[in-house]
Amino acid sequence: MVQAKSWTLVKHFDGFPKDGDFQLKVEELPEPNDGEVLLEAVFLSVDPYMRPFSRFHMKEGDVMIGTQVAKVVQSKNPEFPVGSHVVSNSGWRSHSVSDGTDLTPIMADWPSDVSLSLALGSIGMPGLTALYGIEEVLGLQQNETLLVNAAAGAVGNVVGQIAKIKGCKVVGSAGSDAKVAYLKELGFDEAFNYKTVPSLEEALKNAAPEGYDCLFENVGGYFSTVALPQMKTFGRIAVCGSISTYNDGTPQTGPYPHMTMIVKQLKMEGFTQNRWQHKNPESLKRMIGWLQEGKLKCREHITEGFENMPAAFMGLLRGDNIGKAVVAV
């Protein structure tokens, strides 16, 4: 019998999450049955989507949602041998039993010198979100100008790097001078700290006086209100996130974008990456290729210890991380 730890949601978040919203539980797991495997978490992901999705997809008392890289420690399923690694939707659990239907094996030719934690980041869901947002939603073309906010986050930094690979001008907004410096290291053409610029509108105009062909939207709220008038006619907006609104107790209201969208004939589309999951094997190989060629750089914000899952999650929502936030067990 294995003792498994899990973090549960005691009550739905009211405003910014608090320590008291989470509870650590311990249970004994049964031996796996035929066709099942026992998994041990190696790396766990914390992501902004967990804040709003917990309201839609969880009941109070449920284990927190999320993905992890796990090692198969017992197996009665020949597709998942002992010692192999998988990406699992097990949530915030140290150990779990699975019948394999929710598991994705780590690609067989994963480079030995690349940390498996990247399967939760640039070579995983956030990286695929960036890729599909650029290629499938925006249809970004060479020499176009792209604006991405939350640009030093797990998705945003990959967005900027892929746009540079495609020969575009990239402007990034982030929330600290350290993050801005990181964006410049990655090759962003322009980057600014939205918290310290005297005027967000002027910062956007100065970074791209000609306007923006594409906006990769991670923030929403006030930033979106200011950015939309800076779009070129027929501009395209990929709506990936709205992190500025996730912790609001009262929903934000207005101003409303409809006249700007009409006059500029803008196209705005919300999306999640799983719409194109049939392309994932080929897409992940491309991402690994860019990594090995030095075209894609990956930075992680690692928190040690399963007991620190809530702290890592709340730190992410405060913007403490540069790159992908991961918990190492």
From TrEMBL:
<keyword id="KW-0521">NADP</keyword>
<comment type="similarity">
    <text>Belongs to the NADP-dependent oxidoreductase L4BD family.</text>
</comment>
<keyword id="KW-0007">Acetylation</keyword>
<feature type="domain" description="Enoyl reductase (ER)">
    <location>
        <begin position="20"/>
        <end position="327"/>
    </location>
</feature>
<dbReference type="InterPro" id="IPR036291">
    <property type="entry name" value="NAD(P)-bd_dom_sf"/>
</dbReference>
<dbReference type="GO" id="GO:0005737">
    <property type="term" value="C:cytoplasm"/>
</dbReference>
<dbReference type="InterPro" id="IPR014190">
    <property type="entry name" value="PTGR1"/>
</dbReference>
<keyword id="KW-0644">Prostaglandin metabolism</keyword>
<dbReference type="GO" id="GO:0006693">
    <property type="term" value="P:prostaglandin metabolic process"/>
</dbReference>
<keyword id="KW-0276">Fatty acid metabolism</keyword>
<dbReference type="InterPro" id="IPR013149">
    <property type="entry name" value="ADH-like_C"/>
</dbReference>
<dbReference type="GO" id="GO:0032440">
    <property type="term" value="F:2-alkenal reductase [NAD(P)H] activity"/>
</dbReference>
<dbReference type="Pfam" id="PF00107">
    <property type="entry name" value="ADH_zinc_N"/>
</dbReference>
<dbReference type="InterPro" id="IPR041694">
    <property type="entry name" value="ADH_N_2"/>
</dbReference>
<dbReference type="InterPro" id="IPR045010">
    <property type="entry name" value="MDR_fam"/>
</dbReference>
<dbReference type="InterPro" id="IPR011032">
    <property type="entry name" value="GroES-like_sf"/>
</dbReference>
<keyword id="KW-0443">Lipid metabolism</keyword>
<dbReference type="Pfam" id="PF16884">
    <property type="entry name" value="ADH_N_2"/>
</dbReference>
<keyword id="KW-0963">Cytoplasm</keyword>
<keyword id="KW-0597">Phosphoprotein</keyword>
<dbReference type="GO" id="GO:0047522">
    <property type="term" value="F:15-oxoprostaglandin 13-reductase [NAD(P)+] activity"/>
</dbReference>
<protein>
    <recommendedName>
        <fullName>Prostaglandin reductase 1</fullName>
        <ecNumber>1.3.1.48</ecNumber>
        <ecNumber>1.3.1.74</ecNumber>
    </recommendedName>
</protein>
<dbReference type="InterPro" id="IPR020843">
    <property type="entry name" value="ER"/>
</dbReference>
<keyword id="KW-0379">Hydroxylation</keyword>
<comment type="subunit">
    <text>Monomer or homodimer.</text>
</comment>
<keyword id="KW-0560">Oxidoreductase</keyword>
